[in-house]
Amino acid sequence: MKNIVIAIVALTTVILIAYSVSPDKNNQGTKAESSDDITWVKFDTGLKLAAEDNKYVMAYFWRPR
């Protein structure tokens, strides 16, 4: 029983320490508020820019249900 209590206290301590040192704990799950973070372009424009800079393109498509 004593080992279980020690394990629970240790696990709780580790979780609390990890949460307290997270780099952006106040803005988790929020979208970028600044337009400096991402420059959005249309798909065909993005393909052209990627080809000019010899870069890959990552596209994410979704639709509401």
Summarize, please.
The chain has a domain at 36-65.
Describe the structure.
There is one protein chain. The protein has 65 residues and is mainly α. It has a domain at 36-65. The protein has helices spanning 2-20, 43-53. The radius of gyration is 22 Å and the shape is elongated.
Which features does this protein show?
2 helices, mainly alpha, about 60 residues
Give the N-to-C terminal Cα separation.
Answer: 49 Å
Largest sheet properties: none
Structural class: mainly alpha
Pattern of helices and strands = HH
Mean pLDDT: 79
Unreliable runs, pLDDT <50, ≥5 residues?
none
Strand content: under 5%
Percent helix among the residues?
40-55%
Rg for CA atoms: 22 Å
User: What is the number of E strands?
Assistant: 0
The number of distinct helices, counting runs of at least 4 residues, comes to: 2
The geometry reads as elongated
Task: Summarize the helices and strands and which ones pair or pack.
Layout: H1 2-20, H2 43-53
